[in-house]
Write a structure and sequence with these properties.
The complex is a heterotrimer of chains A (about 180), B (about 350) and C (about 230).
Chain A: E1 2-10, H1 15-28, E2 32-37, E3 47-55, E4 67-72, H2 75-81, E5 85-93, E6 108-111, H3 114-121, H4 127-138, H5 144-154, H6 163-176, E7 178-181
Parallel strand pairs in A: 1-4, 4-5, 5-6
Antiparallel strand pairs in A: 1-3, 2-3, 6-7
Helix pairs in contact in A: 1-5, 3-4, 4-6
Chain B: E1 4-9, H1 10-20, E2 25-28, H2 36-44, H3 46-49, E3 53-56, H4 60-72, E4 77-81, H5 83-88, H6 90-98, E5 103-109, H7 125-129, E6 140-142, H8 147-164, E7 167-173, H9 174-178, E8 180-185, H10 194-200, E9 216-217, H11 224-244, E10 248-251, E11 258-261, H12 264-279, E12 284-289, E13 291-293, H13 297-305, E14 309-314, H14 321-327, E15 334-338, H15 347-358
Parallel strand pairs in B: 2-3, 2-4, 4-5, 5-7, 6-7, 11-12, 11-14, 14-15
Antiparallel strand pairs in B: 1-8, 6-13, 10-12
Chain C: E1 7-11, E2 26-29, H1 35-45, E3 50-56, H2 57-63, H3 65-74, E4 79-84, H4 114-117, H5 123-127, E5 133-140, H6 144-162, E6 167-173, H7 177-180, H8 184-198, E7 202-206, E8 209-210, H9 214-218
Classes of the chains: A alpha/beta (about 180), B alpha/beta (about 350), C alpha/beta (about 230).
Chain lengths: ~180, ~350, ~230
């Protein structure tokens, strides 16, 4: 099994930390992992993306231009990465702020209206976990137990009391998953 | 506590390895994309754990000269930087080589020339392996291609530096510096005691003479014949290093008709290209130099000599390719494929370059 | 002080490049201007060892200006000796930052013109204002009495290091009879009459406090320099 994922959005949306939690959960499940962020001017407020790879084998290139899954959180990233999903792959996006919706017919596309839900529940900081829930509903790459351990590893100890809230957000995300174009 | 598995950035792995392998001091100056080395060290406060000194210097010039002086007293000291900063350190590296001192310098390369870009590149190959500073000297150069190797090469780097009393460079780039991967970390090793240094490093100016003649650390010798002698001694070390410490990794070369030669992050991308090519029945392998100086000439000659063609993939306009051609004595057609200025080639485009080369 | 078996000195590039041949202690030869960085590192790695740097004015005030400023600003627990003779001696008598206005050297053969070449730099007065310096003084050694006084100051600078007090900085105003193209006796006299007017001797900072006359010392620094020197006419 090898899953090559790009997560892309605005800086501050928790793109990098979502990837990190996924990577940690992967480690807990004895997988090889790689987490490669974009860095530079874009991390100071502009767009931000991270390539996460989970695999049962030694990971070759941490840098990729084709992905099994793209998790897209803003229009710029949609414009850039819709075409980078491998045929038969998966695209998950939050429709909030998206004006040009994806048009590809050869990939599975789901929406997760995470931003609206997060602001409705007053948990905007957990927005990224809602999205992650949506992804895990389609591809349960890591078990809830391993995700829990991943959160423990990834969050500093002073934030460990927030782990249950993070897990709730993941569950909410699973429920929000809405098929847009399913193969 | 035994070994422990962590998820770390390459830059953090450098810092963590330094603390855990008994490094005495780090002196550095912030520059993207390697600032996490100093940041991690400052956050970890190794001076409370192992007594390791960490100092943010006023410049790269100060950093490398702090390293020079620390090494002069027999301490295991290091610095890290990225391309423009590494350029500033060349004079210091020449002094360290000239005074025959052990030291470690990490370069997390970004694209140039000039201020260039902060994105990954491999365009400092010439500077590092051919002697970027003045005089006849070499930097022993290690090229990690994973976070684990970033970690492992710190201790290896110190071992080689002390074995040859010569500066060692870890030549990395923005991809390996920034990527997070699994890394197995060791328990803390104690730093050398001053008594151990007195005993094992008679060349060190420790200040503690105890009846000995005073020790002078210098690279100055105004008598040309004597200076020639110094050079001969240094060159003899380099011949020994070439014979004993050239390293490489060969991947799927046994049945191969073609090989990629690539190091560092480019080698990782080539591994993926090997996968893509093999899926289409093209018999391609990868030779990954681990030491860039000494270049693994013998291995490249042996494996490369059997091939129909060689594709040398670098994130530069073609620097290592000169060593590859020398190794196979230009008997095997050797072609360069590269992206530069901070652009990373994709596995697919390398695969395309391979197909172009074959036809 | 009985510390000779526990000292590392740092020699610079310039006339004192071979200083290690004249001191009977361990020594490290620094690259041009970097002695304060070298001394900082050694002291931090070996806090029980006495560390001192020995630099000339080209080395310390020109190419090594950043290193000396920052070592002083960090308050490194080291002793710095600064030999100021107003010229580059080793390379053959070129202008230094400390060359007096109007003074002739091979790179200002018509006299140093401050409008073209900048002003004579009194770096020691600047260093005294950095919080990391504990003892800053300017001494000379052209008479036996001054030499004795200077020796006392240097001893003080090492005593301070024993007590972990931060930077102790001793400038020794000197001459360069070959670079100035004078006899040794004449060079001393010229220094006394000219150099010391611009670089007055005395303590600037003692025990971490400004000397009582420090404000008076710097009070004229915003005035144009009325004195122009000429080596040849003297």
């Amino acid at each position: 099994m090898t899953e090559e994922i790009i997560i892309a959005g605005f800086g501050g949306q928790g793109v990098l930390s979502m990837g990190k939690i996924l990577a940690y959960a992967g480690i807990m499940q004895d997988k090889e992992v790689s987490w490669l962020p974009s860095y530079g001017p874009e991390m100071r407020g502009g767009t931000s993306n991270v390539t996460v790879i989970l695999s049962d084998e030694r990971i070759c290139s941490p840098y990729l231009n084709q992905f099994d899954t793209a998790i897209i959180l803003n229009q710029q990233s949609m414009d850039k990465f819709e075409s980078a999903v491998k045929p038969g792959g998966l695209l998950i996006y939050d429709p909030n702020g998206i004006t040009n919706h994806p048009t590809r017919k050869d990939i599975s596309i789901y929406q997760v209206a995470a931003a609206d839900k997060a602001s409705e529940l007053g948990i905007s900081k957990l927005f990224n976990m809602i999205i992650l829930g949506g992804f895990l509903a389609v591809k349960p790459l890591v078990t809830p137990e391993m995700l829990h351990k991943g959160l423990e590893k990834s969050l500093p100890e002073r934030h460990h009391h927030l782990i249950p809230k993070n897990e709730e957000a993941v569950e909410i995300g699973k429920g929000l998953l809405k098929p847009y174009n399913v193969l | 506590m035994a070994k422990e598995l962590k998820l770390m950035k390459g830059n953090q792995a450098i810092a963590e390895a330094a603390i855990r392998c008994g490094c005495d001091g780090y002196f550095g100056y912030p520059i993207t994309p390697q600032s996490e080395v100093l940041e991690h060290l400052m956050a970890e406060r190794p001076y409370l754990k192992t007594g390791m000194v960490v100092l943010q210097a006023e410049s790269e010039l100060a950093s490398i000269n702090m390293v020079y002086a620390g090494a002069s007293t027999g301490k295991r000291v290091m610095t890290s930087s990225s391309s423009p900063g590494f350029s500033l350190m060349q004079e210091g590296l020449s002094y360290i080589a000239g005074a025959e001192l052990p030291a470690l310098c990490v370069n997390v390369v970004r694209g140039g020339p000039g201020l260039g870009t902060i994105q990954p590149s491999q365009s400092d190959y010439f500077q590092t392996t051919k002697g970027g500073g003045h005089g006849d000297y070499r930097l022993i150069t290690l090229a990690p291609s994973s976070v684990q190797e970033m970690y492992d090469f710190v201790e290896l780097g110190f071992d080689l530096a002390f074995k040859y009393r010569n500066p060692v460079a870890i030549l990395s780039d923005g991809v390996i510096g920034q990527v997070m991967e699994k890394v197995m970390i060791d328990d803390y090793k104690p730093r050398w005691t001053n008594e151990y240094i007195e005993e094992h490093c008679p060349w060190a100016a420790t200040g503690h003479r105890a009846g000995k003649k005073s020790t002078i650390v210098t690279s100055l010798e105004l008598d040309s014949l004597k200076q020639e002698g110094v050079n001969e001694r240094i060159q003899a070390k380099y011949r020994k290093c070439e014979a004993e410490d050239a390293r490489h990794e060969a991947i799927q070369c046994d049945d191969a008709e073609y090989i990629f030669v690539a190091y560092g992050s480019a080698a990782r991308i080539c591994m993926k290209a090997v996968e893509l090519a093999r899926a289409e029945g093209i018999k391609v392998g990868l030779v990954r130099p681990i030491t860039l100086w000494p270049f693994p000439k013998k291995a490249v000659a042996e494996i490369g000599g059997r091939m129909k063609k060689i594709l040398c993939v670098e994130m530069s306009a073609g620097q290592m390719i000169e060593d590859v051609k020398l190794a196979v004595e230009c008997k095997v057609p050797t072609i360069h494929y590269g992206r530069y200025g901070g652009v990373i080639p994709t596995p697919v485009e390398i695969f395309e370059a391979l197909k172009n080369m074959i036809k | 002080m009985g510390i000779q078996d526990n000292v590392v000195g740092i020699s610079p590039v310039g006339c004192s490049v071979l200083a290690y041949n004249y001191f009977d202690t361990d020594f490290v030869e620094a690259a041009h201007g970097r002695a304060p960085a070298c001394a900082s590192a050694i002291k931090r790695l070996r806090p029980d060892t006495f560390v001192f740097s020995y630099q000339g004015d080209g080395d310390l005030a020109s190419i090594g200006c950043a290193e000396v400023m920052h070592a002083c600003n960090r308050g490194e627990n080291i002793t710095m000796i600064f030999i100021n003779n107003g010229i580059y001696g080793m390379t053959g008598g070129q202008m230094a930052p400390t060359t007096l206005e109007g003074m002739e050297t091979v790179t200002c053969p018509y006299g140093r013109d401050p409008e073209l070449m900048g002003h004579t730099m009194r770096l020691t007065e600047v260093l005294a204002q950095l919080p990391g310096t504990y003892y800053v003084t300017r001494q000379a050694v052209y008479t036996p009495a001054l030499a004795r006084k200077c020796k006392k100051a240097i001893r003080q600078a090492f005593e301070n290091q024993k007590l972990n007090k931060g930077v102790s900085f001793v400038e020794v105003t000197s001459n360069c009879n070959s670079g100035w193209k004078m006899t040794p006796v004449k060079a001393n006299k010229w220094m006394e009459e000219n150099t010391l007017k611009y670089f007055p001797l005395g303590d600037m900072k003692v025990d971490g406090k400004f000397a009582p006359n420090f404000m008076e010392r710097v009070s004229t620094f915003d005035q144009p320099n009325e004195t122009r020197f000429s080596l040849r006419s003297k």
